[in-house]
User: Which sequence fits this backbone?
C-alpha cells in the first residue's frame, strides 16, 4: 500500500515535470530562425487588405509597406525577397496566431503598446511607421493648424480611441467642438462629404486612404498635426532574442541605408565605398551579419532586393504611390522627422 | 556676288544650327532653360510639389530656409515643429555645395545675365535678357551669398520636382512670390545635399 502510494507520488511528480517542460516550451520558443531556415521561407502575418500597407492583387501578388518589410527579412536570410509567405490575419486573432507559432513575424499595421507586449508575451522590436490621429478638412477653409479648429463640427467614429483622443485634444487646448459621430466609418465619410461637419478625424494614414475616394481629393487637405501616438511595428515572440535581433536590425539597416545614401540603385557602388559607416552597413568591414547568425552581406541583400527605408516608403505610401502621404514623422531624424536608427558599429 | 555671300552665310548658319542641335542631342536635351517661352499657368503641380504646411522638426530657428536637394523640397521653418514646404527644381549637377548661406539681395522680375560658366556649357543662351514672363528666372529671385546661385521663379512650371537647372533652385512663380514676401534679406539658407558614398 505504501509502495503504491509512493509510486503514485513519483508518477504525479513526473507528470508535473513533463507538463512544466511542455509549458516552458510553449512560452519560450527560441528556434524561429532555425525553423525558418529549414522551412525555406518566412511566414508573415499581414493585413488581408489595406492599400499601401498590405494588399494582394488579383493574381495573389502582395504589395505594401508591411509586405516589403517582411520581404526584407526574407532577403536578409535567404538573399531572396520571394522567400516570404503571406498569411492574412484578422485584427482579433493576430497576436494569438503569432503566439501559437502560426507565423514567424507579424507585419500587420499593429500599434506597439505595453499591454500587448505583456498580455501576449510578445515583443515589438522597433517602430516601422509612426502613425497618429489627424484631421482632414476642405482646402477652401485655408486652415493649416489643428489649433485653429475651435468651434468646429467634427466627424468621428464612435466608441473608438479616436473619439477619446479627440476629446482630450480639444479639452487640453481649451477649444470647443461638436461631435458628429457614427458607428461605421462609411457613415463618417458620407457625413463629411455631404458637409455635415467641418473636419473629419482619424489616423493620418487612414485619412490619406479615405481622401482618395472623395469626389475631388485635391479639394481636401490633411493637417500636419498629429495628436496621438500610433507607433506601428513588426511583432515577434518574446524570449527568442536571435530572431528578434534579425527583425530589429533589418529595419535599422534600411533606415541607416537611407541616411547614408545607399539605395537599391547604387548598392554595387556602395559595396566599393571606402567610407567606414557605409562599409560596416554593406559588410565590407566587420562581422555584424555573422554575429546575427546571417552572412556578411545581410544588409546589402536587403537594400538590393527591397530598398532602403525611404525607397520602401515612397513606393508604397509616399510620393510614388496613390496615397502620397508626406514623410512627416517618418522622415529621417536628420531631415525633419523622427525616424532614427542606432548605428551599425 | 551679294547673293553668293548671302548663300554662304545661310550655309554657315544652317551648319551652326545643325551643330548646336546635335550638340543638344548628344548631351541631355536641355529642358531647363527656354528663354522667351511664356509659362503655362494651367500646369497643376503634383501634390508632392504643391506648397503645403508639413510636420518638420529642426533645431534651426523659424524663418530659416532649408533646401533638401535630394528630396526637391524647400522648407521655410515655422514655429511649433512645422514648416511651409515648396516643391523645387534643382541642379543636374554643379551645385554640390552644402552648408550655410544667406539671402544677399532680392529682386522682382529680375533681369538675367547667364554666368560665363553657363554660356560655356550652353552657348546658345542669350548674353542678357530683361525681366518678364518669358525670362527663365521668373517672377522673383533671391541671391544666395556671393555665389552665382539663386532661388528663383521659372517659365517652366513642368520642371518642378526634376533635376534640370544649372544649380539654381527654382519654384513656380506663385510660390516664389509667396516665399519672397515671407523672407527678408539676411535670411539664413541651409543647403543639404544627398550623402556621398
Assistant:
Amino acid at each position: 500500500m505504501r509502495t503504491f502510494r509512493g509510486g503514485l507520488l513519483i508518477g504525479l511528480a513526473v507528470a508535473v515535470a513533463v507538463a512544466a517542460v511542455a509549458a516552458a516550451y510553449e512560452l519560450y520558443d527560441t528556434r524561429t530562425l532555425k525553423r525558418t531556415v529549414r522551412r525555406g521561407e518566412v511566414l508573415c502575418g499581414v493585413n488581408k487588405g489595406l492599400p499601401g500597407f498590405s494588399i494582394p492583387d488579383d493574381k495573389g501578388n502582395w504589395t505594401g509597406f508591411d509586405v516589403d518589410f517582411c520581404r526584407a527579412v526574407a532577403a536578409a536570410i535567404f538573399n531572396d525577397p520571394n522567400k516570404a509567405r503571406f498569411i492574412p490575419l484578422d485584427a482579433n486573432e493576430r497576436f494569438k496566431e503569432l503566439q501559437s507559432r502560426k507565423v514567424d513575424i507579424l507585419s500587420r499595421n499593429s500599434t506597439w503598446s505595453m499591454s500587448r507586449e505583456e498580455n501576449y508575451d510578445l515583443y515589438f522590436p522597433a517602430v516601422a511607421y509612426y502613425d497618429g490621429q489627424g484631421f482632414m478638412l476642405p482646402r477652401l477653409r485655408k486652415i493649416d493648424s489643428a489649433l485653429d479648429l475651435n468651434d468646429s463640427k467634427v466627424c468621428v467614429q464612435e466608441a473608438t480611441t479616436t473619439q477619446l483622443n479627440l476629446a482630450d485634444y480639444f479639452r487640453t487646448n481649451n477649444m470647443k467642438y461638436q461631435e458628429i459621430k457614427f458607428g461605421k466609418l462609411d457613415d463618417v465619410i458620407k457625413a463629411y462629404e455631404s458637409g455635415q461637419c467641418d473636419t473629419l478625424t482619424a489616423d493620418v494614414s487612414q485619412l490619406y486612404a479615405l481622401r482618395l475616394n472623395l469626389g475631388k481629393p485635391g479639394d481636401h487637405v490633411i493637417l500636419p498635426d498629429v495628436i496621438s501616438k500610433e507607433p506601428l511595428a513588426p511583432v515577434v515572440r518574446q524570449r527568442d532574442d536571435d530572431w528578434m535581433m534579425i527583425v530589429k536590425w533589418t529595419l535599422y539597416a534600411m533606415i541607416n541605408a537611407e541616411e547614408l545614401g545607399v539605395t537599391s540603385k547604387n548598392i554595387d557602388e556602395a559595396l566599393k565605398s571606402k567610407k567606414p559607416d557605409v562599409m560596416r552597413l554593406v559588410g565590407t568591414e566587420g562581422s555584424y551579419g555573422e554575429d546575427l547568425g546571417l552572412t556578411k552581406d545581410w544588409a546589402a541583400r536587403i537594400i538590393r532586393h527591397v530598398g532602403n527605408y525611404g525607397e520602401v516608403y515612397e513606393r508604397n505610401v509616399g510620393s510614388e504611390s496613390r496615397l502620397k502621404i508626406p514623410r512627416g514623422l517618418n522622415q529621417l531624424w536628420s531631415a525633419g522627422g523622427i525616424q532614427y536608427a542606432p548605428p551599425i558599429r | 556676288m551679294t547673293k553668293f555671300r548671302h548663300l554662304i552665310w545661310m550655309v554657315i548658319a544652317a551648319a551652326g544650327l545643325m551643330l548646336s542641335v546635335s550638340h543638344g542631342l548628344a548631351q541631355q536635351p536641355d529642358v531647363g532653360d527656354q528663354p522667351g517661352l511664356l509659362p503655362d499657368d494651367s500646369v497643376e503641380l503634383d501634390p508632392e510639389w504643391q506648397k503645403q504646411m508639413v510636420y518638420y522638426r529642426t533645431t534651426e530657428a523659424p524663418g530659416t530656409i532649408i533646401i533638401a536637394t535630394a528630396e526637391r523640397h524647400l522648407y521655410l521653418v515655422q514655429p511649433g515643429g512645422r514648416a511651409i514646404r515648396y516643391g523645387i527644381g534643382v541642379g543636374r549637377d554643379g551645385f554640390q555645395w552644402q552648408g550655410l548661406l544667406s539671402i544677399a539681395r532680392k529682386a522682382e522680375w529680375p533681369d538675367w545675365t547667364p554666368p560665363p560658366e553657363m554660356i560655356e556649357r550652353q552657348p546658345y543662351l542669350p548674353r542678357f535678357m530683361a525681366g518678364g514672363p518669358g525670362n527663365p528666372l521668373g517672377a522673383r529671385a533671391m541671391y544666395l551669398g556671393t555665389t552665382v546661385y539663386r532661388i528663383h521663379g521659372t517659365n517652366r512650371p513642368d520642371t518642378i520636382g526634376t533635376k534640370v537647372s544649372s544649380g539654381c533652385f527654382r519654384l513656380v512663380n506663385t510660390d516664389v512670390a509667396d516665399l519672397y514676401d515671407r523672407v527678408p534679406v539676411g535670411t539664413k539658407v541651409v543647403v543639404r545635399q544627398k550623402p556621398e558614398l
